[in-house]
Amino acid sequence: MDRKSTINRKTKETDISLELNIDGKGDYNIKTGVGFLDHMLESFARHGLFDLDVKCEGDLIVDCHHTIEDIGIVLGQAIKNAIGDKKQIVRYGSTILPMDESLVLVSIDLSGRPYLVFDYEFDVERVGYFDTEMVREFFYAISYSAGMNLHIKVLEGGNAHHVIEAIFKAFAKSLDYATIKDPRIADILSTKGNL
What global pTM score does this model have? Predict the structure, then answer.
């Protein structure tokens, strides 16, 4: 049975509907109103082999902040719901991913304890209509709403588009690895018996 989640969230700033299938094939339908974010979420779905449907109407007349942050919140909730009781999952996932001159490390622990370490400062303000400072905010929102320990480290920087895309792809691969079910794990991978 596929692990799926549907989340709808409406505030005065954003109206979001999101469907996620952890056990998908990489199919996607993304319409956020922020072209570069669409591209990044498409990369996330494709490289993680997640099926992802996202529709968002946000207050882009203000800026992209609420749209990007709120989608992060909703995606984190969907990840948490889709994973469910975490029985048999590997729990940890790490990826070092190159994209041209850029090299990124992303490491995840689906521990239930949220924490983000984001180790990079962009030297440009935006890519398209996407503010680069929102990369950290997006992944902060995911880590806290999903309850995951998430480390993102840019080992080699360069073109901001390449760095951000490498982060999204490495996050996708790491999450894919962390959510794999291992039949050797009888229940939950923890000495505590719970996550």
Answer: 0.96
